[in-house]
Amino acid sequence: MDLKLDHHTKDGIEIVDVEGEIDVYTAPRLRELLIELVNSRFYQLVVNMEKVEFLDSTGLGVLVGGLKRVRAHDGSLDLVCTQERILKIFRITGLTKVFGIHDTVDEAIAARKSEK
Amino acid sequence: MATVELSFTPLPAHVRTARLVATAVARHSGVDESLLDEVRLAVGEACSRAVEGHQLHCPAEPVRLALTDLADRFEVEVTDTCVQAPAEVASQVAGGKAPVRLAAQPAGAGRGTADGDGLPHSLGIAVIAGLADDVVITETEVGTVIRMSWPSAGSAS
């Protein structure tokens, strides 16, 4: 399956919905979207990965790049993911310590609001 | 001789094809369903790494993938023709939990060490090492061979 991307604002936070496979072929599209959002001054991001079927290290690189970009503006990038096969790659690479990973979008928003 | 051999133009779009083929052959070879995601991800990482290297150094050369159904193992071999510096390969295999072994002396010039987002290319190797329970990385005079395997129950036919 190819990559589908969408985004919307909820409670002042930009939610990025990702569906499909994030790999060396499709990851540049996600990178472009994250850059576009940051350029549009959206610095509080939640990437919803509940419908992601595949993620490789190229995709991880794009997410880390997005995190670096929003942090440069004192922003945040949290993830929503409960799929074990996706979480596994975050654990292998140690990135569970870098990202806030939540079970639902609402939980991610609540966690972000509570930190303000 | 490998059960299935595949060579493809080093384009990112073909990495998905390689993943699909590897997963299908692994399933047919009797690899447990619970391991297929690991096979798919590890093959994808190895092929992505090879494609990126080929695009930098030898875009006309194909990436080769060999899938072999052994008696009780399913073996995958990804071969690229991009030489890397010894230190670079050594740093790439460090950090993985799997028993990664360098099987030969590396030679030649290295690749870049990071992508546009600042993550090192070595992350792909670290992921492979974390997924496959046996990984051997062999540096030859012309490139790298990543060989990895998983337990299997043998071919269905």
Any chance you could write out the topology, listing elements then pairs?
The complex is a heterodimer of chains A (116) and B (157).
Chain A: E1 4-10, E2 13-22, H1 27-39, E3 44-55, H2 57-71, E4 76-80, H3 84-93, E5 100-102, H4 105-115
Parallel strand pairs in A: 2-3, 3-4, 4-5
Antiparallel strand pairs in A: 1-2
Helix pairs in contact in A: 1-2
Chain B: E1 4-8, H1 12-28, H2 33-57, E2 63-69, E3 73-80, H3 86-93, E4 100-102, H4 122-131, E5 134-139, E6 144-151
Parallel strand pairs in B: 4-5
Antiparallel strand pairs in B: 1-2, 2-3, 3-6, 5-6
Helix pairs in contact in B: 1-2, 2-4, 3-4
Q: Class by helix and strand content of chain A? A: alpha/beta
CATH class of chain B: Alpha Beta
Strand segment tally of chain A: 5
How are the strands ordered across the major sheet of chain A?
Answer: 1-2-3-4-5
- CATH top level assignment of chain A: Alpha Beta
How many separate domains of chain B?
1
Judging from the principal axes of the Cα atoms, what is the shape of chain A? globular
Write up what this structure looks like.
The complex is a heterodimer of chains A (116) and B (157). In chain A, 42% of the residues lie in helices and 32% in strands. Chain A has 116 residues and is of the alpha/beta class. Chain A has a single domain, classed as Transcription Regulator spoIIAA, CATH 3.30.750. Chain A is globular. Chain A has a five-stranded mixed beta sheet, sandwiched between helices. Chain A contains four helices and five strands; from the N terminus they run ββαβαβαβα. Chain B is α+β, with helices and mostly antiparallel strands and 157 residues long. Chain B has a single domain, classed as Histidine kinase-like ATPase, C-terminal domain (Heat Shock Protein 90). Helices cover 38% and strands 24% of the residues of chain B. Chain B is built from four helices and six strands; from the N terminus they run E-H-H-E-E-H-E-H-E-E. Chain B has a six-stranded mixed beta sheet with strand order 1-2-3-6-5-4, covered by helices on one side. In chain B, helix 4 (122-131) links the parallel strand 4 and strand 5. In chain B, helix 1 runs antiparallel to helix 2 (33-57), helix 2 (33-57) runs antiparallel to helix 4 (122-131) and helix 3 packs across helix 4 (122-131). The longest helix of chain B is centred in the first third of the chain and has 25 residues, at 33-57. Chain B starts with a strand and ends in a 6-residue tail after the last strand. Residues 94-99 and 104-115 of chain B have low confidence and may be disordered. The chains are: A alpha/beta (116), B alpha+beta (157).
